[in-house]
Amino acid sequence: MVDAPHLSAPRRLTPPPNVTCCQLAVAGALALVALAGCGGKESRSGSGPIVEDPGPVHVHGLGINPRDRALFIATHTGLFRVAGGERTAKRVGDRRQDTMGFTVVGPDRFLGSGHPDLRDRLPAFLGLIESRDAGRRWKPISLLGKADFHVLESAGSRVVGFGSDFDSRRTQLLVSDDGGRSWSRRPAPDDLLDLATSPDDKDHFVAAGRQGLYSSTDGGKSWRQRGPDGGLLGWSSPGALYLAGLNGAVSRSEDGGGSWDQQGPIGGEPAAFLAEKDQLLVALHDGTIKQSRDGGVSWTVHSRPQPTRSGAPPG
Questions:
Q1: Is 30 helix (H, G, I), strand (E, B) or coil?
Q2: Which of 38, 100, 124, 246 is most buried, with most CB under 10 Å away?
Q3: Are 56 and 272 in contact (CB under 8 A)?
Q4: Which letter, b or e, does each residue of 23-62 get, where b requires 16 or more Cβ atoms within 10 Å of its Cβ?
């Protein structure tokens, strides 16, 4: 087991000396915000320069909040929300946290991982973090400063994460059966792009790697290669496992990944993918969100990034 003590509140820690490239990117973004004030316009309140927020670009994850069916978009520079019936995403709070792994586990309750806003004195790797107020505030659950999950999947108290270990910088696949408080290591079949859990069997995983597709029926203890093509996965019901290929083609499997039927093209390479019983959602690399209500056969635009102007965030 991996030791992972529960932390009831975020600790204010000085970032370690080896800052990640993702943190440097966030730092650069904040620096540009500050530079924009040199000779720039002042906000009407006089609180600081007016800057442009590009909106939800560089998307890492998607999730639907069961409480109000709003779409949440986890990005390199923060979390965004698209309310039902709207086509524009609005930033949740003012933080630019790089949320690499993201999953919705209940009404207003999210799990995440990644790298902090550099205004927060936290380690470079956030471990597993949780929000119980729809992404406004986050607190660490475990592995703070130790892990950065780029793939995050949950089913009840089972949480599966794939990402980097801070000390070794090696990738690792971890499984938790107590909501992410303690973890067990599993062999990763590949450098994983995504992982999905069967809706009716928490030990049945299908994973997509750079070398192909893999399945496990024992909770990730052993794996079998199932196909040559990787991509992003979504498992909406026992007979509906979807693969959004890196070539933009969507396929559906009714037998847990044994065989696939092609559905339709997305119109671009997917950056994030979500499958629900009544819809599929995909984020493209320019931040456009597309939606399908016929199992991936046809796609329409759900929302696009809309830059906004606001006062610069506090330093």
A1: helix
A2: 100
A3: no
A4: beebeebbeebeebeeeeeeeeeeebbbbebebbbbbbbb
Of the CA atoms within 13 Å of residue 47, those in its CB half-sphere come to: 8
Domain ranges of the chain: 21-311
pLDDT in tens, 73-126: 999 999 999 998 888 899 998 889 999 999 999 999 999 999 999 899 999 999
CA 240 to CA 255: how far, in whole Å? 8
**Closest to 18 measured CA to CA, from 180, 192, 181, 164:** 164
Give the model's pLDDT for residue 95: 86
Q: Distance between CA 180 and CA 57 in Å, rounded?
A: 28
| Run of H or E residues at 192 | strand 192-198
Statement: residue 33 has pLDDT above 60:
no
For residue 24, the model assigns a pLDDT of: 43
Q: Mark residue 114 as left, alpha or beta (left: phi above 0; alpha: psi -120 to 50; beta: remaining).
A: left
Q: Is the Cβ–Cβ distance between 251 and 260 less than 8 Å?
A: yes
The kind and range of the H/E element at 29 are: helix 21-35
CA distance 152 to 161: 5
- pLDDT over 70 percentage in the chain: 82
> What's the predicted TM-score (pTM) here?
0.83
- Please state, in angstroms and rounded to a whole number, the distance separating the CA atoms of residues 1 and 170: 18
The CATH code of domain 21-311 reads 2.130.10.10
Q: Which residues contact 269 (CB under 8 A, 6 or more apart)?
A: 246, 247, 248, 284, 285
Q: How many residues does the chain have?
A: 315
Q: For residue 247, which amino acid is it? A: N
Supply the pLDDT for residue 183. Answer: 98
Q: Find, among 166, 169, 206, the residue nearest to 190 by Cα.
A: 206
Which has more pLDDT, 245 or 47?
Answer: 245
For the chain, the average pLDDT equals: 85
